[in-house]
């Protein structure tokens, strides 16, 4: 009797450990922004918006720092440092500078953001790039020691983009020393550290190889960080973003993220939503 009870207790303890400890690797994560874009009419980014829903927006350029027991993870690296302090047209196509009106200062760049949090770029173990557009892959060269996690299709997209998207890819972001970075080229979903705490989700549509991430924290919370699979609330409400590689794939990816939100009681963290940034940006999440 005692032996069977002991076995039952051990099984229960081990089972509980496997379930609750699996996601205990992420202590916290921090929402950063590489400056702001705007103001400009939201319809410039979401052409499907009806007139009654049009508004002017000033949006964040989101980046994330994730503290994992096995090392620091950065999700997206924002606008290139060269865009700082009014120098946009020296680095980006003039049309994007005029449309987006970036207000990035040198202190907004990812390396300085990390410094403010007590870290350096050299300490980052993995950089996950949602996609290769100019406001997401801009500073990967600042992380020569990191493993750079990206969909293999996205590398092809970056080097030879569709003509209608070509201006959103800036070759200076991923040429030169960036070609020698340690790339982990994915083909679909991937459990980054093998413990279920950071899962990369293939969410194509905005670009051919776009990816988002799901983060499960030690506190028991689940967050879906969308990248540009979801720009802002209007996209979740059924109005597709512009500049998509495939509207069909984009819609499927949005529906996938919404299903994860509903099934796992997750919070969706959008890349360019001004209201969500104002309410929750620049803070730690547990």
Would you write up a description of this structure?
By secondary structure, this protein is α/β, with parallel strands linked by helices. The chain has helices spanning 2-20, 94-100, 110-116, 152-159, 233-236, 247-264, 274-280, and strands spanning 26-41, 56-68, 71-75, 124-128, 147-151, 182-186, 190-191, 198-202, 211-216, 222-225, 267-269, 284-285. The chain contains 7 helices and 12 strands. The longest helix is centred in the first third of the chain and has 19 residues, at 2-20. A hairpin with a 6-residue loop joins β7 and β8. The chain is globular.
Question: What is the gist of this entry?
Answer:
The protein is α/β, with parallel strands linked by helices.
SSE map:
Elements: H1 2-20, E1 26-41, E2 56-68, E3 71-75, H2 94-100, H3 110-116, E4 124-128, E5 147-151, H4 152-159, E6 182-186, E7 190-191, E8 198-202, E9 211-216, E10 222-225, H5 233-236, H6 247-264, E11 267-269, H7 274-280, E12 284-285
Parallel strand pairs: 3-4, 4-5, 5-6, 10-11
Antiparallel strand pairs: 1-2, 1-12, 2-3, 7-8, 8-9, 9-10
């Amino acid at each position: 009797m005692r032996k069977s009870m002991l076995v039952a207790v051990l099984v229960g303890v081990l089972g509980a450990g496997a379930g609750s400890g699996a996601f205990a690797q992420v202590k916290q994560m921090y929402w950063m922004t590489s400056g702001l874009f705007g103001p400009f009419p939201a319809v410039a980014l979401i052409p499907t918006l009806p007139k009654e829903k049009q508004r002017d927006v000033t949006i964040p350029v989101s980046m994330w720092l994730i503290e994992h027991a096995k090392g620091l993870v950065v999700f997206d690296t924002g606008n290139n440092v060269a865009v700082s302090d009014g120098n946009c047209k020296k680095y980006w196509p003039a049309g994007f500078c005029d449309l987006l009106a970036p207000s990035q200062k040198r202190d907004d760049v990812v390396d300085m953001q990390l410094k403010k949090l007590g870290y350096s770029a050299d300490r980052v173990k993995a950089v996950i790039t949602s996609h290769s557009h100019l406001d997401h892959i801009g500073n990967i060269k600042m992380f020569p020691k990191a493993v750079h996690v990206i969909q293999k299709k996205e590398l092809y997209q970056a080097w030879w983009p569709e003509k209608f998207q070509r201006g959103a890819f800036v070759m200076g972001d991923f040429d030169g020393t960036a070609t020698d970075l340690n790339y982990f080229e994915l083909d679909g979903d991937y459990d980054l550290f093998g413990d279920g705490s950071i899962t990369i989700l293939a969410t194509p549509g905005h670009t051919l190889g776009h990816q988002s991430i799901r983060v499960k924290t030690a506190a028991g919370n689940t967050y879906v960080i969308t990248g540009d699979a979801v720009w802002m609330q209007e996209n979740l409400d059924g109005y597709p973003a512009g500049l998509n590689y495939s509207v069909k794939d984009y819609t499927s990816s949005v529906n996938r993220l919404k299903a994860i939100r509903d099934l796992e009681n997750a919070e969706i963290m959008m890349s360019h939503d001004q209201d969500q940034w104002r309410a929750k940006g620049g803070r730690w999440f547990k």
